[in-house]
Protein: ABC transporter ATP-binding protein
Organism: Fulvivirga marina
Amino acid sequence: MNSYSIEVENLTKKFGEFTAVDNISFKVAKGEIFGFLGANGAGKTTAMRMLTGLSKPTSGQGTVAGFNVIRDHEKIKTRIGYMSQKFSLYEDLTVRQNIRLFGGIYGLSNQEIREKSETILHDLRLSEVSSKLVAALPLGWKQRLAFAISMIHDPDIVFLDEPTGGVDPFVRRQFWEAIYEAAGHGRTIFVTTHYLDEAEYCDRVSIMVSGRIEALDTPTNLKKQFNASTMDNVFVKLVR
């Protein structure tokens, strides 16, 4: 069996004369936590939209969960989870109602939704507040709930777009513990973040500059390559 969850070769996306993503190539192993870094406008979001089946590449090729990014974009959507940087749950519904709603959207049976609901509520220790509106939860709990719901259909890959934005360092650390747990069960995590210290938590890191991947390796190797003590310094040297 293929040991890669994501394979991309010469993937390019143009909007008229503007090239947003310029001939990028990389592979992500199954169960890997893969960090996708870059400044605003570097092409991260455009690349992620192609990988998640939301945008068709101009040229190049790639597979996600074994499906072709050009021909099988609808099939890709069934095998991935996605958590946007903007809070994606319905705040005017209760915790349990949100779980039930998204379980239905992902095509789970009523029995599966009941089982998944109890598992999520138990694991996140939300059973006592399951009847409360999501709006009443602290931001950190909202983010962890959104992450759990993104995996309710047992996807092969989870795409996380700035998942820890706006939460305090303690909650960020808790969230990364949840990411490690998901990866420990063989799930691939593809994560963008603007907190460069979080790159240290990833197995490997790709850094995009002006639509191109300018560096890709483990955090340790990147720091050695650029003679830098932190990933912040690696990033600064690349974007100068």
